[in-house]
Amino acid sequence: MKKDRNGSVLEFWDRIRELNVRNTQYRTFVNELFSLLRNHDFGKGDLTTSAIKSNKKISAVIIAKENGVFAGLEEFRFLNRDLKISAIKNDGENVRKGDILIQIDDSARKILERERTSLNLLQRMSGIATATNELARKAKGKAHIAATRKTLWGLVDKKAVSVGGGLTHRLNLSDGIIIKDNHLKILNFNIENALRFAKNKSRCIEIEIENANDALTAARTIKKLTSKSLFAIMFDNMAAKSIREAIKELKNQNLYEHILLEASGNISQNNFIEYANSGVDVISMGFITNSAKVLNLSQEIL
Fold it and tell me: Of 73, 90, 234, 288, which residue is the least packed, with the fewest Cβ within 10 Å?
């Protein structure tokens, strides 16, 4: 690898530069997702706010009800850009129970109509960022934590992982090649042919393997390929001990420097330290986006 290993890891697994509202793809995704959610919540109108005929100007604050990492401010601002919003805390900041995160000044009708959808956004993104940050701190730099495509809110979830200190992984299927077991079945599990077919088709090419022998076969093939691509091996559903032994053999055979390494599958907050100590560059974990607890926030009128 021409770059340092960590630089190659970031190029391979991180797309945070694309996840901001200045980017057309991300802006469109956020708009469409939250238009759908807000319209569903709004229904035919907010009967309660309409009934009390309250359209006076008010101030409201969003408060943390527990400790965590704040995320979602950029998206919140964008979706409520017609409101006066003052940010007290920024994306990625640690917050404590009782902290005021945002102040909103506008009509009661607008603020109350959007309360639930806005809180859902901030709570989910902050919960994902908090879970990711906890794991990243415990890993102590031994391995990066990355998202998967097992998400409910797609790009928004991946943005939250990044705010928490993790890597985004692929944003979509066109964002790199991952040769998985079902792809290998089509080629009668011929790892060499799969990698040869894929070379130069993408800057980032990864192959999923399930045992040490296949890892060595993949690494030997990659070493012989003439390609400008970056290559990675994903240890899928392998025990941390088996991965550690496989990496030791990759180093013994002078194959390690030609590949990046990812562990994935059945990894949770309970066992991920074993994987962080195995020698992989990245640990991808579905639970941080599909099972993370939301961060408890509330909106209060001043």
Answer: 90
When divided into structural domains, the chain yields a total of: 2
Average pLDDT, stretch 74-95? 96
**CATH, residue 55:** 3.90.1170.20
Centroid of chain to Cα 42? 29
What distance in Å separates the CA atoms of residue 131 and residue 286, rounded to the nearest whole number?
A: 12
Q: State residue 189's pLDDT score.
A: 84
Which value, in Å, is the radius of gyration of the alpha carbons in the chain? 22
206 & 266 share domain: yes
CA distance 273 to 267: 10
Convert the pLDDT of each residue in 18-77 to its tens digit. Answer: 999 999 999 999 999 998 988 887 777 666 766 666 678 999 999 999 999 999 999 999
* Closest-CA residue to 240 (of 201, 214, 270): 270
The answer on 183 and 98 residing in a single domain is no
Neighbours of 242 (CB within 10 A): 15
Q: What is the dihedral of CA 271, 276, 281, 287, to 10 degrees?
A: 30
Range list of H helices, the chain: 5-13, 24-42, 47-51, 73-79, 108-139, 154-163, 181-186, 191-198, 212-224, 240-252, 272-276, 287-290
Q: What distance lies between CA 267 and its chain's CA centroid?
A: 15
d(CA 164, CA 78): 20
* Whether residues 109 and 152 fall in one domain: no
Provide the 10 A C-beta neighbour count for residue 172. Answer: 11
pLDDT above 60 (res 135): yes
Q: Verify that 28 and 160 share a domain, yes or no.
A: no
